[in-house]
Amino acid sequence: MKKLKNSFLLMLVMMKIGAFTFGGGYAMISLLHSEFVEKKKYLSHDEFMDLVAVAESTPGPIAINMSTYIGYKRCGFWGAIFSTLGMCVPSFIIIFVISLFFDRFLEITWVKSAFHGIQICVIYLILSAGIKMLRQLKKNAFNIVVFTITAVLMVSFSIFNISFSAIFYILISGLFALVIFLIKNLKEREGKK
Question: How far, in Å, CA of 73 to CA of 103, rounded?
Fold first, then answer.
């Protein structure tokens, strides 16, 4: 019964984040970090960084994957269900209502202006999440090399208008990490012999 109550409370927190965050999952990363690492201390920073990596590389929206994991870690199966619903339902309702009146909605001048302001806010939220994670990234050779190569490739591809999916950056970085892990593992085995 206690886990069910905690699951419901977790759902309310996720509903707050889901209802008042514009810009999708990436914009929610900063709010999830603030709520569950800094305020409630449900996750350590390292665990949160791992969660971002896993949620990004698994199918589905990053914020929903993250909320499901946080709910499961905190309250088990029901925590995962309630957290996922809490993250999805407010956005679904808002988008559904907007879709009913979308054309007429966009004709209103103050709504157009509000959307332009929201775009700037979304850029800020995504950028602040990225900067916060970059600051707290462990400064070891692997992380610096992967970050530098990825940043250079992203900027270069943008400048030269080369289409390259972000999924490939994730897959290549994961493959690179796997190769480094296997090399270290082989060296450790040879050292024991």
Answer: 42
Mean per-residue pLDDT pooled into runs of 10, the chain (193 residues): 86 89 78 91 90 86 92 94 94 85 80 83 83 86 88 90 85 88 90 78
Residue 8 near residue 75 (C-beta atoms within 8 A): no
- Quick check: 69 and 51 in contact, CB under 8 A? yes
Among residues 98, 120, 137, the one where a domain terminates is 137
User: Are residues 129 and 66 part of one domain?
Assistant: yes
For residues 87 and 64, is the Cβ–Cβ distance under 8 A?
A: yes
Residues in the chain, overall count? 193
Torsion sign (Cα): 65, 67, 69, 75: negative
Asked if 119 and 187 sit in the same domain, the reply is no
Structural domains in the chain (count): 2
